[in-house]
Amino acid sequence: MRGSSNHLAEIEKGSDMVTITAISQAAEVSRAIAPAEAKSPEAKAPPAAPDKPGTGVPSRVPRRLLIPLAAVGAAATLVLATSAHWNTWVGAAAVQTTDNATVHAEMSRLSARVSGNVRRVLVRDFQRVKAGDLLMEIEPADYDAAVAQAKASVAAAQATLDNLENQKAHQRAVISQAEAQRRSAIARELETRQELERQDQLLRGGVAGTKQRLEQATAAHDTAGAALAATEATIEAQRSQLEILNGDENLLRAKLRAGEADLTTALLRQGYTRIVAPFDGVVGERMVQEGNYVNVGTNLIAVVPLPNVYVVANYKETQLTHVTPGQPVDVTVDTFPGVVLRGSVERISPASGSTFALLPPDNATGNFTKVVQRIPVRIEFDPGQPLVERLRPGMSVVTHIKIAGEAS
């Protein structure tokens, strides 16, 4: 900051030298003319020299015009020097002040998320509320019915799914029984095969074997084999049926999830009929009254988060040369003359105010007039100042950013 002050002093010194030089020149001209006028104070001024032929321009400037011309030249020199360094002087000032500043708050405008008639309005204008307080209610009958219908759909889907689970359990029992029968059939087939082999050996050896017994053993083995094949076919059929039931279960579970989603949506819409305060604050003006019909998006009520307020000061771009976040700020409020509130620069807008306009300026059209832009600066109040609780959004304030040191 000391470097900025030295730079400012050098600029001011240079400007003063230009001004002193111009004034000295005017004084010298005045001293040169004064003796001639003193010798003959009552003498008439000599007639002006005739104009040069064909030009219409006097051959020399009358002496009485020299002093005014010198003064005009000195003034013009001073104006040029001042305008050339004006932005530098402004940006290097130790205190940057603007009255283009107002109090702001993160106000919330609550709007309808469902349509219907306003059933109740439970707050008055400018009433203080707490977070979660019920402010107003939209007629919920239609949305209550939608919730009941969604619950019934979910219950029906769940019942169908439970019934399917019972069918699957029964099918698994059938498969288990068939598998037990298959094990018995396998044992029977093994027994008959062994008997067939024994009778065949006896008949071949001619020992106590008869052809009739061999035929009986063969028939018994064939019957056992057929029973085993039938049991295995039954098991495959029952397993296929179980797979079908599994597919039905997946479909029913998808329907159940869809029904639960519909129920969630219905519950949300039912909840949207209750307009509650999003935070502690003060109610602004109500936009609707009891009995009014509102559509989705209709503004209902505004809540201001008092006393959480801040200041937005619109500084000229030439004033922000040395402004940075964290610098102390003195704030005076028009409502409370003589009172100084303390704060600090929180952050500076990323663009000028005109950049965020609905129709931002376009300088590429050829019609350009340079205008000093204003950049919004957000200023937060320091804690422990009771008067801040009395501030309201929209109040006019004057801000003084302390560039060179602490707030006074």
Automatic annotation (TrEMBL):
Q: Which GO terms describe its biological process?
A: transmembrane transport
Residue ranges of the CusB-like beta-barrel domain?
309-351
Domain Multidrug resistance protein MdtA-like barrel-sandwich hybrid stretches = 110-304
Record SUPFAM superfamilies: HlyD-like secretion proteins
What PANTHER family does UniProt report for this protein, alphabetically?
MEMBRANE FUSION SUBUNIT OF EMRAB-TOLC MULTIDRUG EFFLUX PUMP, MULTIDRUG RESISTANCE EFFLUX PUMP
| Keyword annotations of the record | Coiled coil
Q: What is this protein called?
A: Multidrug resistance protein EmrK
